[in-house]
Amino acid sequence: MEGAGEKWPHPYVPRDLYLPGFVDVQLSKLTIVGTYALASLLVASLVWFFSGRMAKISKIDRVLMCWWVFTGLTHMIVEGYFVFSPEFYKEKTAFYFSDLWKEYSKGDSRYAARDSAIVAVEGITVVLEGPACLLAMYAIATKKSYSYVLQLAISLGQLYGTVAYFLTAYLGGDNFAVNMYYYYVYYVIMNSFWVLIPSLIVIRCWKKICAAVHTQDNQMTKTKTR
User: Fold this and answer.
1) pLDDT score of 2
2) Which pLDDT does position 6 carry in this prediction?
3) CA-based Rg of the chain, rounded to a whole angstrom?
4) Integer Cα distance of 163 and 1 in angstroms
5) Which of 123, 120, 98 is nearest to 22 (CA)?
6) Can you give the pLDDT of all 226 residues of the chain as single tens digits?
7) pTM, whole model, 2 decimals?
8) Of residues 126, 131, 195, 203, the one with CA closest to residue 164
9) Nearest-5° angle of CA 34, CA 21, CA 183?
10) pLDDT of residue 82
11) Which of 6, 114, 205, 212 has the greatest number of C-beta atoms within 10 Å?
């Protein structure tokens, strides 16, 4: 039986974090990061290619389609593995997703520790935002009337989740990274994309929705004055 006082060495901070059965990362950092980058590039390239064969879709909308597919699959597959694999740190084989989260936990050990706030935020992201992102891509491609409202809602959800992610770390002491390299590269820079891009989408969708409402109001006014 694994005793509470038994030592299980790991690279994470805080050092007294108890991870019974921990197995260190098997894959190299280059393999983990490179695979994710290449897979993301492949997905974005395919979306860009096929969206270019559709009629009357602007370049901005094509870029947004790439973003929604990328972030949607990231939520559902990558983050989905974390949510539904509570003991990923015990994986003994060189399984990609378990090693990815073992590596990322060097920047935020709350993932390895299964912090309740992290699991809750990620769970909502996986179940709700992941599929909604793919729906947003479909809405853009088929020019659905709800496209801007949906994109606005998802982006606000992503902003809320990211702010909650950073805020809970700050309130918890903000001492979950192995060193400053992992803190800034993994924790700050990688997550900053889910602040910057959703913010830009919110602004764009807000302007589009306001313009549509303004146009409709003008048309109603003209109709009444006839």
Assistant:
1) 47
2) 56
3) 21
4) 40
5) 98
6) 444 445 679 999 999 999 999 999 999 999 999 999 999 999 999 999 999 998 889 999 999 999 999 999 999 999 999 999 999 999 999 999 999 999 999 999 999 999 999 999 999 999 999 999 999 999 999 999 999 999 999 999 999 999 999 999 999 999 999 999 999 999 999 999 999 999 999 999 999 999 998 887 677 776 666 6
7) 0.92
8) 195
9) 45
10) 98
11) 205
Terminal CA-CA length for the chain: 84
Closest CA to 205 of 160, 108, 140: 140
> Over the chain, what HEC string results?
CCCCCCCCCCCCCCCCCCCCCCCCCCCCHHHHHHHHHHHHHHHHHHHHHHHCCCCCCCHHHHHHHHHHHHHHHHHHHHHHHHHHCCCHHHCCCCCHHHHHHHHHCCCCCCCCCCCHHHHHHHHHHHHHHHHHHHHHHHHHHCCCCCHHHHHHHHHHHHHHHHHHHHHHHHHCCCCCCCCHHHHHHHHHHHHHHHHHHHHHHHHHHHHHHHHHHHHHHHHHHHHHHC
Q: Find out whether 72 and 133 touch, Cβ atoms under 8 Å.
A: yes
CA–CA distance, 134 with 157 (Å, rounded to integer): 15
